[in-house]
Amino acid sequence: MDVETIYGELRGMNPWWLSGRVPESQLKPFKRDAYFQVNVRLKKYPDKAVLLRGPRRVGKTMLAYQVISDYLAENDPMSIVYVSYDKPTLRETPPDEVSRTIREIHRKNPTLLVLDEIQYLPDWDRWLKVLVDGKPGFSILATGSSSMALKKGKRESGVGRWNEVLILPLSFAEFVEFRTGESLKSLAFIRDKKPFPEKKFHLEQWAVESGVLRENFREYVEKGGFPEIVDMDLWDAQEVLRGIVEKAIFKDVVALMGIGKPLALENLVYYLAKHPGSILSLEKLSGELEIQRATLENYLCALEDMMLVIMPPNLVGKTRRRKVYLADTGLLSALRYSPGSLLDDSMRGQLIETAAAANLQYVAHGGSKRLAYWRFRDHEVDFVLTKGGKPDIALEVGSTKKKLTGARRFYERYKIPVRVLSFMPPPKQPDGILWLPIEIDLYMATSAEREKAKLEFAKLLS
What we know:
Rossmann fold; alpha/beta; globular
């Protein structure tokens, strides 16, 4: 493609070359945790690219526009270049050819080059490596939806050349701020990190404040964390969410990963939605779905890499069999065709456990930990966050007699207290068990991650 043709395509993608600003329709005031992480890495490591990865429709492009808007405040608009590889027109045009075109037409290097949905660029890793190794002297931000395509692109090429930032559906803390416009850190029991009132006269205030948090949590569990559906009613939200799954399967997984039977993969997704939190038996699942075991393993790997499922392994045992959850409660409700599912006794526990899995996965990524579960003989603990391969934090969702027995056995073995998360406290709390309202625990955990990202960004600016 000649320079004039490339430049003509770029002009349509970069309206700020004329207006000097990002169109308002492309900007939102809310800043994700990943926004702060991306900016820190762009400024702290100017010789490296930043690769922003995440599932479809979690806000990668919106975040890229926010970064562009920041750069426009301090740089010539003509030096900010955005390329969308989701559109086929420039899909065969590598980044170095784009930067060469800008130099030839604008007579200067870009200040920021944004490569959106880079997984659609053939040999994207090689071209990004060439660009970074050439020390271009400008910032580079790349985004990608399909992480398996990124892995197939030999992500090891990125060692020393780009830093990865993950962006997932909204954490509970992000959801609250996105939904209400404010953090709930000002609530006394959040601010002081004391989830229960110490004095009787604080009971009424605590009841009001915790009620605010619980109301937000119920909405979060029903809708999930995809930003565009937060303000929708449940029926419309579920239509959008089913569309996200269909596109992820039929466009990303099938087209990019060469999977030959998309309907079998779709059947697997719906099966997993009916059995959230189940421990996988590949032999049994292979028989039920009539999918060969090797193919089934490839499908599960694809879904995990697409960040559509969370698959924590067992902390112990030779096989380390994995549990499986959908990565978002909204997806779970949508694929079960069940709006208002918190009213469904059979689904309530599954939704709340899925919400816990999603938020603990979020915390694990932020804290360089791994999410697992613990099952030994007939005893089980739902979630264990490990650090350096050793258990660090243990959590049980629900407070039935069987669950408390598993928590007690875990404590006896590892001497790590188990946090039991539910709406109501258990009748008795044996040694080694600490009950916390689930909405408070998940909010405090994800809020801490959010504050950490903001603080790192603020330090860099000061």
